[in-house]
What does this fold into?
Amino acid sequence: MRLARVLAAATTTSSSSGASPFLGVRGVAAAAASSASSSSSTTTTTPPVVDVCIVGGGVVGTALACVLRSTPLTSHLSVMLADRAPPPSSAWLDANPSRHPEPRVSALTPLSIRFLRDVGAWDRVSNARARPFKTMQVWDDASNGHVRYDAREVGEDALGAVVENVVIHAALHEAATRLGVIFPPPSSLASLDLGGDPGTLASVEFEEEEEEEKKEETENGDGGGGADGAREARRRVRARLVVAADGASSRTRTLAGLTVAGWSYHRKAAVGTVRTAIAHDTAWQRFLPNGPLALLPIVGEGTGDGEGGGDEGAAGGGGDGGGLSNVVWTTTNEDADRLCKLSDEDFAAEVHAALRAEGKYAVKTSPAWGSDAAAADADADDGGAENVGRSDFDRLQTSLVDSLLRPASKLALRGVGVAAASPAPVFELPPAVVGASGARGAFPLATRLAGRYSLRRLALVGDAAHQARSISHWSPYDRVGVVNADT
Ligand SMILES: Cc1cc2nc3c(=O)[nH]c(=O)nc-3n(C[C@H](O)[C@H](O)[C@H](O)COP(=O)(O)OP(=O)(O)OC[C@H]3O[C@@H](n4cnc5c(N)ncnc54)[C@H](O)[C@@H]3O)c2cc1C
It folds into this structure.
């Protein structure tokens, strides 16, 4: 089928703009539907034929499998999902408040939540461990500017929810199983042949992870079915569409001969779990010279007693028992590694200082910014902390904004019939961080883009197509999309 036809089919069902080459998951679904012949059911011959063979069952590959099987347009397609690792256990979905949270989380937007609901995975996620956040505050240490969003402004209860990645993954896997997705035993992609002419199906070969083990058993004569045992560990399927969902270092992409371009940020994201003196429902993000630091509320109660806290003064006020938060701190590679090695007490103290502009993280141009005095000022003045501790430059900037830009924008808004803008939202101090616990990890940040997102009988999705500097995106399902495949 010609690319133009696939594009046309895909754009009618995709939420992406028509001009975009990134077609969204429903675009892939449409491409797959178009590529399936009327007699497209799986054959029982060897090697078997599947309509869609997805290589890589991470969150993106599994989400795609779910949407293919749950969308009326494509639900008749046979979908195979192969991953070299076993899927996460459903036990992650048991409501178990005492389980310590995993450090890898995602902040899901309402769109992502709707997506999970549509494929039947959301109820399990929300019953297990989803923590809604109602407000978001983003600011930086280089100016007095800040933005603050409140779900009520748009008539919603929450701006999104923070959930551990493994919980989302387990719920998607469970939904995929229910939807009839075919899961071979854990196996790695071994070879890929996309076929020469339009009538030829793609041929994909997988190697079971245990093959080496079986070979050893065979060589040692202790079972494994002799030479056949090793051969059985390789399986071949033919597919109308192969989807590369095997992550940033995609082997599928390499075997298809596609190149990637990109760059490293020379930054890592250090992630971990901290306890705050009071429970909160805000996603906080402060931009520091080396990168942003985010504090996201997650499911779980803290003791709020300041035990292990890095700052005695900050530890008080734990009357509500406190709460747990996830930290995602983007900084230099060395600094991220250092943060991961700190004791719980020191990590908590450093997160606390960096969020509240204390010690070495104090704002040079605005010393009072972030202090309790600033917060008190902010309470007393709708202009928030904009009026405290400013440098001459800040003052000049504010006076220009006040004297020129605000009146001009008000006039412009009035001119188009829009009521005067509401007062600037008040800056709030993040809660005191009083402790830390659990594992920490540091993840290198890079951007990598595949030279093409599709070839005949091949589509790339997720990080295999487009690895972005993810921390600011806040939705894994924005990146399920991508692709059209000339099938
Ligand atoms: C600290 C951190 C925070 C992040 N926060 C967010 C966030 O809030 N929002 C957001 O949108 N994104 C976030 N991201 C990015 C997000 O996690 C990734 O974009 C997403 O996980 C990519 O999913 P994927 O399924 O494409 O790839 P992966 O999750 O990498 O999955 C690839 C799968 O393919 C399998 N595989 C690999 N090779 C083979 C092979 N040869 N054969 C068979 N199987 C194979 C792997 O076992 C794996 O299961 C964050 C990333 C980091 C590091």
